[in-house]
Amino acid sequence: MTTTRFAPSPTGYIHVGNLRTALMNYLIARKAGGTFILRIDDTDPERSKEAYVDALKQDLEWLGLTWDRVERQSERLDRYHAAADELRAMGRFYEAFESPTELDLKRKKQLNMGRPPVYDRAALALSDAEKDALRAERGAGVWRFKLDQQRIEWNDGVLGDISIDAASVSDPVLIRGDGQVLYTLASVVDDTEMGVTHVVRGSDHVTNTATQIQIIQALGGNVPSFAHHSLLTGPQGESLSKRLGTLSLRDLREQGVEPMALLSMMARLGSADPIEMRADMGALIDGFDIGRFGSAPTKFDVADLFPLTARHLQGLDYDAVAERIAALGVPEAQAPLFWAVTRDNITTLHDLEGWWTLFRDGAEPVIEDEDRDFIAQAMAMLPEGPLDDSSWGTWTAAVKEATGRKGRGLFMPLRKALTGQAHGPDMAQVLPLLQVIRARS
RNA sequence: GGCCCGUUCGUCUAUCGGUUAGGACGUCAGGUUUUCAACCUGAAAAGAGGGGUUCGACUCCCCUACGGGCUGCCA
């Protein structure tokens, strides 16, 4: 049974980078008819906030990423300590007492001598008496997992065959001096006990995977299949981390990005498959294949989300937006027509408001100097009273007759005089909705 | 510094030694629509650099350059 998970830590809002990871795991589970677990990584009580847990769930729900189970790492601490005991019993776990500054110093020294900054395992040589003394002097030490110094290999779902020499990696600290369990351990215990079969995460975890494979093996668990997707960069190839603040899902939602637009992009960006607007999640699931993704860093430009959003809106029926349109104050009788007229001319639903105010209050006319007489003449010919969908045709035909103008030279000045803009919906449909024509005066 | 991954049109990418280097988005040009948008057709547009291996290299190997990641008592 295929089981995947998304394991965010509730220390902030989730952003496009997180979403990519979440979505890939979700799609794999759904495509296989398996289980998708939402696992809240809240082992750090300092930084984890309940508000972020709520926010994160809201964001996922907004996108339609439903989960089958929720797990809380903070409720599983006993499991992690049980695993730690196991490691201790088999001699793969040792206590070390270097302070952060001491470790820092060691690293710098190693670097200066041109050697890799790998923990030197000095603590391994400590006698029990020495450990007692250090413990009395400095308090409890950290617990490190003793790596087996061989090459660690796995076939990565995105990267292909990977081989990392364990000797080039420090023995990972799994439990802090204050007793807090760290990500590396918690993640491994959870994945094993929850039966996770596929782990998809960012390539920033590649080295973690190497050490985690050894921990899983030590604990006798099944090694899941790993896939590390490339990280997103900004449009110029710059690291996205600095800009992530403005790329939270909440921000995007506020800017009017539609869920399906965002999902359509994130499920394909960086893969060999074209980014196309998909109608629903099912279509996304069908076409998804993690093996189609490349391993090179992927440029992401928020701006690309808007054409997709526009395209999505063009395909929406009135029913889908009725509520939203009613909220603008559009009378129910006019609302379906309003949507039919505007939906091809908006980028996000926010743009609806602008069109509605224009229809309701009229627009400041834009009239070029050379068109002044023409517009005055045309306005004089515009019938008083309510206009219907044939008004535009009869009116412009009459104006054409009277002035000799035709084509763009006829219609564009009228469009600009009536709407104040050079772009907009079909004028024949605009006219009946336009309640005030300021150019008339 | 060490380790891992990478570099093909502007962007995302295809090609598993022999191709006119293909597609999608974007761009541009035409065409339709009496106007906007949409739509249709077409065009421009790419193998980081240098060495090998080979009859033949985008493809395999090495070096260089550049990009990303890791190198935490963060995740």
What would you say this structure looks like, in words?
The structure is a single chain. This protein is an alpha/beta fold. It has four domains: 3-67 and 185-233, Rossmann fold (3-Layer(aba) Sandwich); 79-175, Glutamyl-tRNA Synthetase, Domain 3 (Glutamyl-tRNA Synthetase, domain 3, Alpha-Beta Complex), CATH 3.90.800; 244-313, Glutamyl-trna Synthetase, Domain 2 (Glutamyl-tRNA Synthetase, domain 2, Orthogonal Bundle), CATH 1.10.1160; 322-440, no CATH class. It has 18 helices and twelve strands. The protein has helices spanning 16-31, 50-63, 77-89, 100-112, 128-138, 183-193, 206-218, 249-254, 259-266, 281-287, 305-314, 318-327, 335-342, 351-361, 372-381, 391-403, 407-419, 427-433; strands at 3-6, 35-40, 69-72, 93-96, 142-145, 151-156, 160-165, 173-175, 198-202, 225-229, 232-233, 298-299. The strands form five sheets. A three-stranded parallel sheet has the order 1-2-3, covered by helices on one side. Helix 1 links the parallel strand 1 and strand 2 (35-40). Helix 6 crosses helix 7 (206-218). It binds one RNA strand of 75 nucleotides through helix 4, strand 7, helix 6, helix 7 and strand 12.
